Amino acid sequence: MKTVHVHTPSHSYPIYIGAGLLGDFSLFAPHIGKKAAIITNETIAPLYLQQLSDLLTQNGVHVFHIILRDGEQFKNHESLNQIYDALLAHHADRKTTLIALGGGVIGDTVGFAAATYQRGVPFIQVPTTLLSQVDSSVGGKTAINHPLGKNMIGAFYQPKLVVADLNTLHSLPAREFSAGMAEVIKYALLGDVDFLAWLEQHINKIMQCDDELLAQVVAHCCQMKADIVAEDETEQGIRAHLNLGHTFGHAIEAQMGYGNWLHGEAVAAGTVLACRLSEQLGSLNADDTARVAQLFRQANLPDTPPKFALEQWLAHMSHDKKVENGKMRFITLARLGAAQISEITDMSLLEKTLNKFTV
Amino acid sequence: MKTVHVHTPSHSYPIYIGAGLLGDFSLFAPHIGKKAAIITNETIAPLYLQQLSDLLTQNGVHVFHIILRDGEQFKNHESLNQIYDALLAHHADRKTTLIALGGGVIGDTVGFAAATYQRGVPFIQVPTTLLSQVDSSVGGKTAINHPLGKNMIGAFYQPKLVVADLNTLHSLPAREFSAGMAEVIKYALLGDVDFLAWLEQHINKIMQCDDELLAQVVAHCCQMKADIVAEDETEQGIRAHLNLGHTFGHAIEAQMGYGNWLHGEAVAAGTVLACRLSEQLGSLNADDTARVAQLFRQANLPDTPPKFALEQWLAHMSHDKKVENGKMRFITLARLGAAQISEITDMSLLEKTLNKFTV
Predict the structure, then answer these.
(1) What is the pLDDT of residue A321?
(2) Radius of gyration in angstroms for the set of CA atoms belonging to chain A, rounded to a whole number
(3) Which residues contact A107 (CB under 8 A, 6 or more apart)?
(4) Are A103 and A131 in contact (CB under 8 A)?
(5) Which end of chain B is more exposed for a tag (fewer CB within 10 A), N or C?
(6) What is the spatial distance between Cα A356 and Cα A272, in angstroms, rounded to a whole number?
(7) For chain B (length 359 residues), average pLDDT per consecutive 10?
(8) 3-state secondary structure of A201
(9) Cα of B311 to nearest chain A Cα, Å
């Protein structure tokens, strides 16, 4: 088992990474009260709910379950209210622990419910997808979507611990595994060119779910994210770099309807667009972009976005929260392995970046 | 002008108290960005919205307005969504300042919107009722109601500053002024028997809105609350004392339908019940309770609750969040001027406390 510690001004907590951790009550024991709600979705419930529920029940925890519908399109007010209603029906109080069992959508939704139910109750992240293990379960960003924008309603709220059981990745559909790799590659691009080279070297074995390599990948990404979050919990500065590819990616998700493109797929295509914008700014060259695009393709990810009207690109991106006082902010690459914040006021740069992808 | 400073682990901010402060841009200037949303209700809007809006606009702030319906029954998801929708329609970003212009309902709802819009934007409290000036605008508790319980959904989130203009109290209906006095009397009971005697001495002039005495009342209560919040921002301990009378009070509000009894009226009757429960516990005597009841009556407040079934009292109170692991927690009085937390497991004590007020 590997352990990564996350330190923030408001709270510190451990991430445990390894195979079979869902059978180890000692990891949960210090952080759980007498009563816990396991909140998962209809896809994950048949796979892991019974196992986790039994583990807790056998150790004296009073457990109840809340099962949400599966998919990004259900990361919304209805799911949130389903959680609130069930917590109230079960007389959950301020010491009741919420456990998020699932991927990023579950983690974000349950985290926000935990942040806001009775002004905050303890919660534990049990991420079951590669994407949530390397990224969304770490750092305390919680949110739901609004019809006018992704992640528009949320809070910064840290879990008591994160338990990443690598065995859960074996049940993950190939398309979702690839989507998780998009965030892995993103980490390499924004902070560590050696890790980029290591990924290029091992990408085929990683895609075959080699356990040893996966443990290294998850621990490395969690450590990178933990370092960034420790420096900047509430995204005043460097944490914004983690949004590499996300402004373009969110536009793709919004245009195509949430859930039709997976988040990681949109981030992959969005990251290649961020590389192209970096070319417009003169900091990358076409070979760099081609190298990035190739790695995404090797991870079975799209390296080009769908085509839609320029006005729609801009409308979606101006609703994205990386807009400050009217300027459009993008995370771009100063070079492979180093990100920067670019404030774009010259819209022709965006036009050139997007011109092959508009109709 | 009097100034009280609130210090919490997460944030420090000033409360300004005085007549005519809504005309002083210098108070707002250090805490406001280029864009601000003034959020108020249909009752307050005709009285003070234009004045505050003009003040900001004349000083170069881009201002837009959101006007909610007035009343505790609108401290709900619909009002919250009205705020989110308007913020998105106006392309509000993370630096847009939300200004809560109104009473406790506005402050709680806008504060929660500020805590959760894009994971947190700056906000300013401009309380226009006695209750919000002495209590709800200070300390960062934000929330909306759920059909199954009051303040069930919320966050701890501090404002950038609080501006309490005493002139706004002149337009306050007498019934609401009295409701604010309930919280003033509560402060005296839970922490300061000298202040209780001072209130008994001056209650008639205070009820006639004497400006000099009011400034003392507001500053004294804010200072008491600031001291408590500094010690215990997230209500792990002593801050719970501020809930004196509130568990009974919330039951009254829930039973009678939110908005039919004013919060302060319910707190007054609830506080007398807390005194009766303290009698059951042996810490107060009947004369103490009579003294408290008399002061509430002098402030034109109810000293007895409506009658309803014991089962309904208990059902409402068990949904209240001051329930931990099944025990019912009440704030009671160790003596006049000193509160304590009492965990009640013997339900016959509650029966005796409530027996005159059940059907």
Answers:
(1) 52
(2) 20
(3) A100, A125, A127, A132, A136, A137, A142
(4) yes
(5) C
(6) 13
(7) 88 92 96 95 97 97 97 92 96 95 96 97 96 88 90 95 94 94 95 93 93 92 90 82 93 85 94 97 96 97 95 84 68 95 90 92
(8) helix
(9) 16
CB A330 within 8 A of CB A344: yes
Phi, psi angle pair for B159, to nearest 5° = -75, 165
Per-residue tokens: B125: 């409290």
Residue B71 marked as a ligand binder: yes
- Domains (range + CATH), chain B: 2-171 (3.40.50.1970), 174-357 (1.20.1090.10)
Does A245 have pLDDT greater than 70?
yes
Asked whether the beta carbons of A112 and A142 are under 8 A apart, the reply is yes
Cβ of B115 within 8 Å of Cβ of A155? The answer is yes
Residue in B with minimal Cα distance to A117: B153
* Element (DSSP H or E) covering residue B63: strand B62-68
Query: Which residues of chain B have a CB within 8 Å of the CB of A78?
Result: none
Cα–Cα nearest to B348, from B281, B296, B259, B264? B281
Decide if A5 contacts A14 (C-beta within 8 A): yes
pLDDT for position B320: 58
pLDDT value at position A305?
96
Of A96, A110, A97, A34, the C-alpha closest to A68 is: A110
**Residue B325 confidence (pLDDT):** 57
Cβ–Cβ < 8 Å for B325, A34: yes
Which residues on A lie below 8 Å from B34 (Cβ)? 325
Give the model confidence (pLDDT) of A135-170 as tens digits.
Answer: 888 889 999 999 888 899 999 999 999 999 999 998
Supply the DSSP symbol for B32: -
A104 marked as binding residue: yes
**Predicted pLDDT at B205:** 94
CA distance B281 to chain A (A): 25
Residue-level pLDDT at A4: 94
Cβ neighbors of B292 (< 8 A, separation 6 or more) are B185, B189, B271, B272, B275, B303, B336
Distance CA B109, CA B153 (A): 10
Q: Which residues of A touch B155 (CB under 8 A)?
A: 115-116, 119-120, 155
Q: Kindly state the tokens that stand for B239.
A: 């801050």
Say whether A117 and B85 touch across the interface (CB within 8 A): no
Query: Residue B285 — φ and ψ, nearest 5°?
Result: -115, 175
Cα A103–A271–B96 angle (5° rounding)?
A: 80
Residue B145: the pLDDT is 94
Q: What is the reported pLDDT for B335?
A: 96
Pairing of strands A161-165, A11-18: parallel
Gap between the Cα atoms of A13 and A8, Å rounded: 9
Give CA–CA dist A135/A232, Å, rounded.
15
